[in-house]
Amino acid sequence: MFLVCALLFLLGMWVPFSEASTPRTEVRINQAALDYVAQVGLNSFQDALKMQLTDFLYYQRGHLQRIPVFMLENDISHLSLKLIPNYGIHLSTSGHVGMTFFLERNLQKLRVGITTEADIVISQAAIGTLVLGISLCNTTIEEVNLTYSEDGSKEIWNSIHGYIKAILPHKPCSKLSFLVEGLNVYMGTLIGLRTIGPESQISYSLTHPPTITKDYISLAIKATFVLLGKPIVFPPPPSSFSLPQQVGSSTAMINFGLSQGLFDSIHFLMQKSGSINLDITGQLNSKNNQLTTSVLGNLIPEVLRQFPNSMPLVLKARVNAEPIVTIHNNQTSLWIQYLLDVLAVSSNSAFKSLFSLDMAVDLALNIFMSGGKLQANASLQKDIEFNVTSSNVGVLDLLGVKPLLRSAVKEPLTEHLNALFGLGVTLPSIAKANFISPQVFVYEGYIVVSCGLHFQD
Ligand SMILES: *[C@@H]1O[C@H](CO)[C@@H](O)[C@H](O)[C@H]1NC(C)=O
Ligand SMILES: *[C@@H]1O[C@H](CO)[C@@H](O)[C@H](O)[C@H]1NC(C)=O
Ligand SMILES: *[C@@H]1O[C@H](CO)[C@@H](O)[C@H](O)[C@H]1NC(C)=O
Ligand SMILES: *[C@@H]1O[C@H](CO)[C@@H](O)[C@H](O)[C@H]1NC(C)=O
Ligand SMILES: *[C@@H]1O[C@H](CO)[C@@H](O)[C@H](O)[C@H]1NC(C)=O
């Protein structure tokens, strides 16, 4: 959104990076997200359990026989993830696995009930990502039933039982730990740089270990902006930010809390970068071109005197104060003050400044999510205001000139800002995670985006 425009033209600017003053966001992951992860995870776990097991070694008639054993099907029907406050997640899963023993002359199939329980600890890695690890895991073997036996013999039943007790309990835990390691690879992508404009990127990382309650996992996240490979500094630290208990949608899988501090840092960038500056020229070949010295000369005789032949005008709008975003309940506003220089092209193609004005623009922002990015739509909520700051064409009748300037500035300016704000900013995310059905809530001093989670294949 704003920061995009801000960064576009920051080229070359570099200031030392200050860790303490980076903008904050809070991400709350609710039980609903865990339920979705459990549902996706169940399929992965079912697939992971399909394997060939260690051979079953069996003495028969004085020979050691190696019996191949396969576990190719299962109906693990249940996997649940529950939050453990201040710790992590408890995982439990249960169902049956089918085992096939390829005995020399007697194929045997068994159905074994298993229950696996694991505790997953969630912590912060040194690089500022989430890291998951299994701290406890055990599998209980429930009943073992023979479902098929080629010659009906049960002579080696006891040996098979012993084998199952020895081999099987480790498998679900080692597969789980493999899956969790795989998840950590995705968690690591949080800190990846995401392009938000030419040469400009944003990256997120954790500032603290996650806070885990019985209802959610809360992540304190900071944003780092990078331009041409260099981090950008922000003004003094915003006050610390934490979300109230009940915000956004209570049924959402994830709530993102975006602080005033985040928006403040964006103002800073907007001001410094010059990307919201704008030059406005009239439609040179249009009969209706209002931006000429002859049109202006009708209002200011001195202009007509200096430019007897009609010449085109150029309006140069330059931000000359820090833009201010205010976030009120259900209403976000952006106030920008420009110095507007009104110039005429003189006969030798040089620009001559006619007069300058302070110009205040008061915009209502409609903040929304689109294509996974936070974007804004700006519209004027008041007439553009002007005050004369200097004049080379004598005393100005501001009342007379205002309507001309307003109509010349209004459309190009809102179009320019909307194009910039429409580039959008990615929210903190990991690879393959998409945010669906987003809703934006505007509170006093902060914005919450509530959404669902969907993993791409
Ligand atoms: C199995 O693991 C769970 C943790 O997931 C633990 O609470 C339980 O005590 C463990 N059981 C045994 C028998 O170790
Ligand atoms: C095993 O057999 C018992 C009865 O013999 C039955 O109650 C149980 O559901 C069976 N279990 C499986 C996993 O098929
Ligand atoms: C904001 O808008 C929502 C939905 O229109 C409404 O439920 C809520 O009360 C409004 N809040 C304020 C502070 O006006
Ligand atoms: C113009 O001056 C008035 C009075 O000093 C002030 O209230 C207003 O904010 C100024 N407007 C602009 C656009 O600078
Ligand atoms: C943005 O504002 C323009 C004009 O006010 C409107 O036509 C457009 O639909 C808006 N877009 C969104 C996404 O709100």
UniProtKB/TrEMBL annotation:
- Identify one Pfam family in the record: LBP_BPI_CETP_C
List where the protein spans the membrane: none
Output the InterPro entries linked to this UniProt entry: Bactericidal_perm-incr_a/b_dom, BPI_fold-BPI/LBP, Lipid-bd_serum_glycop_C, Lipid-bd_serum_glycop_N
Task: Report the GO molecular function annotations.
Answer: lipid binding
Keyword tags: Signal
So which residues are the signal peptide here? 1-20
**SMART domains linked:** BPI2 (SM00329)
Where does the Lipid-binding serum glycoprotein C-terminal domain lie? 248-451
Give the similarity note: Belongs to the BPI/LBP/Plunc superfamily. BPI/LBP family.
Q: What is this protein called?
A: BPI fold containing family B member 2
Q: Which organism is it from?
A: Monodelphis domestica
